[in-house]
Write a structure and sequence with these properties.
This protein is an all-alpha fold. It has 10 helices and no strands.
C-alpha cells in the first residue's frame, strides 16, 4: 500500500467495534433509555444526559484504544523483528513534517522520508528515533479530551488514516456529539432547547457505530510491513 493511498475497503471482523456496540446497548438498558423514552420528568432527563455523557466516554476510549494498539504493535514489531509497519512509516513522515513547520526546528530537519527505505535509514542512524516519535504520539493520546473531528485527526491521521476513509458525515456527527456532550458537562443540557429523548440519543450513537467500526477494521492494514 503506497504512502497516501486512498483507503477503499476493510474486510476483517471488529471485535473491539462489537464490544463498543454491546457496551452502548448495556448503558442504554441500565439507564432505561429506549426509543420511547421521553423527557417527562427530571429523573428521566438525568438518565438521558447520563447516557449521552457515558456513550461519549466509551467512544473516546474506543478511539484511544485503537491508536494505542497501533503504537504498541508498531513498536514491538520493530524492536523484535526490525520490521517497520505502515503506521510507523506514516508516523515518521508526520513527525518530520511537523518539525518543518516549526521555524526553530526546520533548519536542522530533514526532508520528510516518503520512501520506507529512507525511514529505515533514519532509524538505523538513530535507533531510538521511532521510539521517540511513538512516545510523543502516546503523550498526544494521553492528553486527548474528546472525539470531535480535530481529536480524531490528531490521533489517527499521523498513523496513516486518511480523510477519504472516514464514512461520509462521521466527523460532522462526532462534532455534533461533542457539542451535545458539552451542553451536559457545562451545565446547559437541562435547557428546554437541549431536552433529549431516547430516540434522538439512540439514533445518534447508532448512526456513528458503523463508521467507528470501520476505523478499527482498518488497523491490520496499517500494521502490515512497509514496502
Amino acid at each position: 500500500m503506497p504512502l497516501g493511498e486512498q483507503i477503499r475497503s476493510a474486510h476483517h471482523h471488529s471485535r473491539r467495534g462489537q464490544a463498543l456496540h454491546n457496551r452502548l446497548i448495556e448503558l442504554a438498558n441500565s439507564l432505561h433509555v429506549t426509543n420511547q423514552t421521553a423527557p417527562v420528568d427530571q429523573e428521566t432527563v438525568d438518565h438521558l444526559h447520563a447516557f449521552r455523557v457515558l456513550a461519549y466516554s466509551e467512544t473516546q476510549a474506543f478511539i484511544e484504544e485503537v491508536a494505542e494498539q497501533i503504537l504498541v504493535v508498531t513498536e514491538y514489531n520493530y524492536q523484535t523483528r526490525q520490521t517497520l509497519t505502515h503506521a510507523g512509516h506514516h508516523l515518521m513522515v508526520n513527525s518530520e513534517i511537523i518539525q518543518l513547520a516549526n521555524k526553530g526546528k526546520a533548519r536542522n530537519s530533514k526532508f520528510p522520508p516518503y520512501e520506507a527505505s529512507a525511514v529505515q535509514s533514519m532509524i538505523s542512524a538513530d535507533p531510538g528515533l521511532l521510539t521517540k516519535h511513538i512516545k510523543t504520539h502516546r503523550e498526544r493520546i494521553g492528553a486527548n479530551n474528546g472525539v470531535k473531528a480535530h481529536n480524531i485527526r490528531a490521533l489517527l491521521l499521523p498513523l496513516g488514516y486518511r480523510e477519504e476513509f472516514f464514512r461520509v458525515g462521521l466527523l460532522d456527527k462526532l462534532d455534533a456529539f461533542g457539542r451535545e456532550r458539552g451542553n451536559v458537562a457545562h451545565g446547559t443540557g437541562a435547557m428546554t432547547v437541549s431536552r433529549p429523548s431516547g430516540s434522538t440519543e439512540l439514533a445518534r450513537v447508532n448512526s456513528m457505530i458503523a463508521g467507528l467500526i470501520d476505523i478499527d477494521r482498518y488497523v491490520p492494514r496499517l500494521l502490515r510491513p512497509a514496502a
